[in-house]
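Re-run requested by the PI after the first attempt was lost when the workstation crashed. Everything re-entered from the original request form. Ligand of interest: aspartic acid.
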Amino acid sequence: MPNNHQFSPLPPWPRTDYCGNLRESDAGREVGLWGWVAARRDHGGLIFIDLRDREGIVQLVFNPERAAAAHRIADQARAEYYLAVRGAVVRRTPATINAELPTGAIEIVVAQAQILNPSWPMPLQLDESADEQLRLKYRYLDLRRPAMQRNLRTRHQAVRGAREFLDGQGFVEIETPILWRATPEGARDYLVPSRVNPGRFYALPQSPQLLKQILMVGGFDRYYQIARCFRDEDLRANRQPEFTQIDIEMTGPRIEDVMAIGQGMMASMFRRAAGIELELPFPRLEYEEAMERFGSDKPDLRFGIELRNFTSAFAGTQFRIFADVLARNESIYGIAMPPDLQLARRELDELAESLRSRYSMGLAWVRVAEPDWQGPIARHLSATERARVTETAALKGGETVLMVAGPAANVRPVLGEIRLNLAARFNLRKADERRFLWVTDFPLFEYSPEERRLVSVNHPFTAPHPEDLGLLDSDPLAMHALAYDLVLNGEELGGGSIRIHNRELQLRVFEKLGLTRESATEKFGFLLDALSYGAPPHGGIAFGVERITMLLCGADSIRDVMAFPKTQKAVDLMSGAPSEVGIEQLRELGIKVIT
Ligand code: ASP
């Protein structure tokens, strides 16, 4: 390692351009460039260096006869040394033009060079092939990769597009506290001890939900924030303990007003970040129809193979398994695979086995063939049943019908998953197709067997459908919410609702969720009080910045659109956070670690 580079003064020539921006039209100019050595080729006489900065790569040429001192520098330079050079932009000879590179028609003939900082040997290869653990540990190196540069800049442009749109619509950007108290969004809270209030804790917000509602009570009328949210949950793929939402709230909206804002903003984001014009408005689908047709509340509409409800086709059946199902008032759903998308017998057996082991569900399948239907259940189906199945699924012959029986609430999601797997198996998803949709009319409550009580499908501040208010005591599970999600290609990009703005109704909903009036007042008294002082009707939505950026970039993981993500175990491999803290610090906070 050369030891004369401990601290270099800046070079006497100015930095005039970014490497990646130079084009043929710059030929003849003298430029000053700074960048990292991405590659170095020593041809015995000439040395070529690919110099990289945030805009891209340009080729430098060092000629020992024309600039001996600079050539000596190039001779010392190694991967990721940070160099400053001065030289002339020169057209390459036709034979040496590199059409792959935006700067490939020119090169820089270097007159002067300086090493601004050497680099230790690289601990990882700076490309896609590098191990992700290493990429996260040496994130500052990984971030230099053009793909990461592009992803984070796409994210910036997407957020900029959102800001521009919302500013234009009269939304005011307001920051809300990070040190606050729990807001239920269905995850565990991150707690922060308060030194000055021993034994008390702040909770990091799972979202600014209550604060944005209170801002409406506070008269801001239209709010947004690029808000950091913290949720301590088991990190499944594409979840992070902290992430960013574009959080929006407005006074007095109908559902359609929130949707107009949401899709207008999405159009602005796609235009800014990718130059893509989205077709508005996005279609709408009610939750029940989404579940019935796609077995999912975030259906991927890029392909068909929709679910069919065969329950009534089997009314009065002699086939014992189905007869038992119908006797229990359960359902039979299925998927008809067209003749050109046929699974091999072995694949059908594997699918049946996985349904059995994972869900204790059976798979019944028949192939609609001539002269007779085939498959294990074919001989059990009467002529009438075959005719009804044919009609229900509009069969033309050559299809295989996959059927699953049981409670609709269990069967539909399982078939929804099979639908997605079949799409993957047969490559039915076009990567460049974008199918947005709004899903509406979610149930207000669902029953949680673990907690043995009703829980909110969205969150407890979501307004019930006014027509369903009468069901609150008699049949809460039948109530619908004024809630909506935005879905793109099977991914939920955002969701929101019209809120409860009435103290009494909020208390009654809390009660349904198992919160007594006393504990509701204790936990959410500030909200209930705010609702009691002329709170206007309000509603809003929040969108996941990482999800949206991921889809814009075609990235596979949200970690690739975050500068410093954490691992699945919520660890930052670069800094080592979370870390242990000294006993003194704990004592000051009045905390004793017991594990
Ligand atoms: N706070 C909700 C969430 O984080 C979004 C909303 O209802 O506006 O999902």
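Saved to the shared folder this time. Residues 185, 207, 209, 495-497, 540-542 surround aspartic acid (CB under 6 Å).
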